[in-house]
Design a protein that fits this description.
Elements lengths: L1 E3 L12 E5 L7 H17 L2 E8 L2 H5 L11 H11 L3 E6 L2 H5 L2 H12 L4 E5 L12 H11 L2 E5 L3 E2 L2 E2 L2 H9 L3 H8 L4 E7 L4 H6 L4 E5 L8 E9 L2 E10 L11 E6 L10 E11 L7 H20 L2
Parallel strand pairs: 1-4, 2-3, 2-5, 3-4, 5-6
Antiparallel strand pairs: 7-8, 9-10, 9-14, 10-13, 11-12, 11-14, 12-13
Length: 310
Amino acid sequence: MEIFTSFQDMQQPPTTPILTMGNFDGIHRGHQHIFRLVQQRAKELQGTSCVLTFDPHPQKALFPEKEFFLINHMEEKIEIIRRIGIDALFCVPFTREFAASPPLNFVQRILVDTLHVREIYVGENSRFGSGQEGTPEQLALWGETYGFTVCRIPPIRHNGSIVSSTKIRQLLRAGAVDQAADFLDRPYAVDGLVVQGTHRGTTLLGYPTANIDVHHELIPGKGVYICHVKWNTTLYPAVINIGTNPTFQQKNTIFVEVHILDFHADLYGQRITVLFRKRLRDELKFPTYQDLIQQIAQDVTDTQAFFRHQ
């Protein structure tokens, strides 16, 4: 896949570009459906399947004061799109000036003069340009003038529900990682560096943990989860706690601590990825350390049982 962060990097326009454009946060089942349509049409025309997305996300650029957590960071988004098999990815810098420009300027300057786009696939609720005046209907009218076709894609439903990035964010914040995975068509994953912790897992509880400085913005809600840890290319069964360690009176800082089953390697300074499988329980405050140890033992037993039946 060719990746362009500036149109000046492009030596010539793609051959018969079939394009979809949007934010694509999460790259969920709905996005993947559009990507497949783009790929199929590009194959039919012996053209180039293209994705145009924006960096940063418009919400980040326009409303930096508002709480808004992305499902994917940009490196992860690029890698997922690469794995899907898109031919060319255009990451357009998004600024307030860019957002204020009339949508027709974007159509003329980028879609027509730069990319020479042949067909465009967009969600029927998509918007772009100042005042969000760039609707799919208006885009189709401009297509008639400038010689490209617009295909409007209705929202995709899965198990009776419309798939959306907003819904996935809500599910993850609520800890419903299995439902989110169903919409994403893959487990939700976060990555980060293993950093020094308090060593209580090893010295006090008997269950050593890797403390993760998470790279992602969106961390599932507080609780205990069954997960896989990916280190290098290997997946290891694990149980992870997200929360404030209330048994130890630490109320303000969110910790992400993973216990990898039957694992003894030194991970300090290593980058690992956590793939969430299922939520086990809420984070609880225990009256004694022994009660906590007993519960951790049960969490490990439940995790082992989960993986035995996979």
